[in-house]
């Protein structure tokens, strides 16, 4: 019997504190470039590499729901929010790979900044055994590794052929040509606290929820 996969799917993790267009627009552009059928947003509960989020897990989940409510490309996986221990990407990917089976094409979306520090991630050597990596451009970050061995790893796995991403389950790195949205959640939180946020940076339903919940106001 021939395995019927559901097209190329990708995971995109983050604290989403709050979710904003700097998260969504590059991923939407990437979806068009590589033919993503589904993007699974993966809100973190206890991120290993950064301070605890300001909004509660329930509030961050609701903001993600509101941000994607009219966008069929996106869905949500809450497994990391339900953990009380740090969320390591490799553990989530390994679990998802078991659920989806060995032949389903699966990718993980990261920014150029994350790619350049990926060898600091727990279990990073196993990432490509479970998925492809799709990399979004980030303003101000180098295109290549400074360490020759990491650059060799990138060169070995890099592909410009998007067909390979949807025809194989894992193992490739694709550097996307995505819009450079120079905006961070930290900046948005600071601006909200000062009362001068640009509402074009956040989906309107999310902004309404932030105001209703009095979030990010000291």
From TrEMBL:
GO molecular function: ATP binding; nicotinate-nucleotide adenylyltransferase activity
Enzyme class, broadest EC rank: transferase
Name of a matching Pfam family: CTP_transf_like
Keyword Hydrolase: no
EC number: 2.7.7.18
Pathway info: Cofactor biosynthesis; NAD(+) biosynthesis; deamido-NAD(+) from nicotinate D-ribonucleotide: step 1/1
Keyword Nucleotide-binding assigned: yes
Superkingdom as given in the UniProt entry: Bacteria
Gene3D superfamilies (alphabetical): HUPs (3.40.50.620)
Key words, A-Z: ATP-binding, NAD, Nucleotide-binding, Nucleotidyltransferase, Pyridine nucleotide biosynthesis, Transferase
GO biological process: NAD+ biosynthetic process
Reactions it catalyzes: nicotinate beta-D-ribonucleotide + ATP + H(+) = deamido-NAD(+) + diphosphate
Ranges for domain Cytidyltransferase-like: 11-190
CDD domains: NMNAT
Role this protein plays: Catalyzes the reversible adenylation of nicotinate mononucleotide (NaMN) to nicotinic acid adenine dinucleotide (NaAD).
HAMAP family given in the database record: NaMN_adenylyltr
Family assignment from sequence similarity: Belongs to the NadD family.
Name of the protein in question: Probable nicotinate-nucleotide adenylyltransferase
Organism, scientific name: Providencia stuartii
Recorded name of the encoding gene: nadD
